[in-house]
Design a protein that fits this description.
By secondary structure, this protein is α+β, with helices and mostly antiparallel strands. Among the domains are: about 130 residues, no CATH class; about 170 residues, no CATH class. Helix content is about 30%, strand content about 20%. It is built from 16 helices and 21 strands. An eleven-stranded mixed β-sheet has the order 5-6-4-3-2-7-8-9-1-11-10, with helices on both faces. A four-stranded antiparallel β-sheet has the order 15-17-20-21, with helices on one face. A hairpin with a 2-residue loop joins strand 5 and strand 6. The longest helix is centred in the middle third of the chain and has 42 residues. It is elongated, with a radius of gyration of 28 Å. About 35% of the residues are buried.
């Protein structure tokens, strides 16, 4: 095959301690992240990064021997992980310290336990391979060389059992290896392994040789016919909405193989090589890549390119790389936190619906005594509907939230009322609030029902994840009275978005760019005006 690259575009980053990453623990969460950070993360793997020096190209060694099944004729990508070079504790230390981050500690312990199980079963390297045939199914295949086949197979059978339909995975036990793949391509693996047939893909062999000094490696390379097809069908340039004339068609025509090697904390190391068929192709690939660099804020000016004898090396200043990684990690962390906040609100809204099914009216904003004095929050009323009947039974419903008895229960706040997004709140505090303005559902003396919401349940906000200033003890019945002359500040604080639950049960993200008028309409249930909330 004429796939052996003769020229290289090489990028490298090296950092042998975490000292220069100390600000990740201190200033990391004070930055704002937007959708661009997702693009930045993608570009990071496509571009790589370097310190102020470039390490010379390592000479190719003998052909890399890959387990049968890792590479097939239509394989477009292989990721190799060295499990013995993964330290979950060091990896999680990159994240900022949290006052209450038991969830993160649980994930770390789970990751370490999983690694121990696989390593004890004789697994050193784990290969994730992407045959073109699995792309329509949104899946990858795993090839795991091991000594204890039964233990490894059982471990992955447990994982695949949690994958929802319609995608069905199978776990194949072979001599000294386990294969995990979608059911639809099972025959291909069985035939390949059964015949002990070795597939000759010199592009993958050369890619692994180029980054063999790294414990973790990823090679992406297209079969020659597919590369030619994509070169024809990929657009000559991106959408006019993107302010660069990057050409996907030109890039794919001039890059045969993308090889990425990296190591994880405590020693951080990253190198990316774009392997092209000749010097002219390398120059064209470099030109297109540098266009992508300009999309990354605060990184483009720090990236430098040098060419010599057809070989091109890119470098980026270390401090710019740290900022880049912080933004990318921040975006991912905040996305996960927002998803958990949405899940919490969804559980609360569903509990409020279940309360309605039982009592035929909305949950009252407060549990009151015979004289109408508020005693306990509505959150206490819905405890039985979020799986907290035992906690509900511990409350004295005829005493206020801060009585000697009820106050002891503040520390037992369910996780559903805890907000994981943003700066942690004090223990027992929540910012999931019922908004009160004139005309909202929480201003009537008697609880309303769905029939009373004449503006439509899909148009009326029921509950809001408010800013930190809105936080209150979770059993406290104090109403959340909004400043009707400044609804934006009350709902959003200094954030650009807010997560809200509507009466129909939907959870939505709304923008701070909405007008005060539209926010007011969305909070009122029978004003006769349908809000245009974005």
């Amino acid at each position: 095959m004429d796939m052996l690259p003769r020229e290289h575009i090489s990028l490298q980053c090296r950092q042998n301690s975490l000292s220069s990453y100390s600000f990740l623990r201190e200033e990391f969460w004070e930055t704002r992240a937007g959708a661009r950070c997702c693009l930045m993360l993608l570009l990071g793997f496509a571009l790589a990064a370097a310190t102020s020096t470039v390490q010379a190209q390592q000479p190719a060694s003998d052909n890399v021997q890959l387990p049968i099944g890792v590479v097939m004729p239509d394989t477009i990508g292989v990721i190799k992980l060295d499990l013995t070079a993964i330290d979950p504790k060091a990896l999680f230390s990159l994240l900022p310290n949290q006052t209450d981050d038991t969830g993160l500690a649980t994930v770390e312990m789970t990751a370490q336990a999983s690694l121990n199980t696989l390593i004890d079963a004789g697994v050193t390297n784990l290969y994730a391979t992407i045959p073109a045939e699995v792309i329509p199914h949104g899946a990858v295949c795993l090839v795991i060389p091991c000594k204890d086949v039964e233990t490894v197979a059982m471990y992955f059978q447990g994982l695949t059992a949690m994958i929802p339909p319609p995608l069905k995975f199978v776990v194949l036990k072979q001599a000294e290896q386990v294969i995990v793949c979608p059911e639809v391509i099972r025959p291909k693996f069985e035939q390949l392994v059964g015949s002990q047939q070795k597939v000759n893909r010199e592009d993958f062999s050369r890619g692994f040789q180029a980054i063999s000094m790294f414990p973790h490696q990823a090679i992406f390379s297209l079969p020659k016919d597919l590369q030619a097809t994509l070169g024809r069908v990929f657009p000559e340039r991106l959408s006019s909405d993107i302010p660069i004339d990057f050409s996907p068609s030109r890039w794919v025509k001039n890059v045969n193989t993308l090889a990425i090697g990296w190591s994880l904390p405590p020693n951080i190391d990253l190198q990316v090589q774009m392997l092209s068929p000749d010097g002219a192709s390398a120059e064209l690939a470099l030109a297109e890549t540098m266009k992508l660099v300009t999309l990354v804020p605060n990184l483009g000016d720090a990236v430098k390119a040098e060419t010599e004898d057809g070989q091109v090396a890119l470098t980026v200043q270390a401090d710019a790389l740290v900022g880049f990684l912080a933004s990318a990690l921040d975006a991912q962390r905040q996305t996960t936190q927002r998803m958990q906040t949405s899940n919490n609100l969804k559980q609360i809204v569903m509990a409020m619906h279940q309360y309605y099914d039982v009592y035929a009216h909305f949950v009252p904003a407060a549990i009151r005594d015979a004289n109408g004095k508020p005693l306990l929050s509505w959150r206490v009323s819905i405890l039985p509907y979020i799986g907290q009947q035992e906690l509900y039974d511990q409350f004295k419903l005829n005493e206020p939230w801060d009585s000697e008895h009820n106050q002891q229960l503040l520390a037992k706040m369910p996780q559903s009322f805890a907000d994981p997004w943003g700066e942690p709140l004090p223990a027992g505090m929540t910012n999931y609030r019922l908004p009160v303005i004139s005309g909202s559902v929480w201003t009537t003396e008697e609880p309303l029902g769905f029939k009373d919401v004449t503006d439509g349940t899909s148009n009326t906000i029921w509950i809001v994840r408010g800013p930190k200033s809105a936080a209150v003890e979770w059993t406290n019945p104090e109403p959340w009275k909004l400043d009707e002359d400044n609804l934006k500040a009350a709902i959003f604080g200094d954030a650009e978005i807010a997560i809200v639950g509507y009466i129909d049960g939907s959870i939505r993200t709304i923008q701070a760019t909405n007008s005060e008028e539209n926010l007011r309409y969305a909070l009122q249930y029978a004003d006769g005006t349908i809000s245009q909330i974005e």
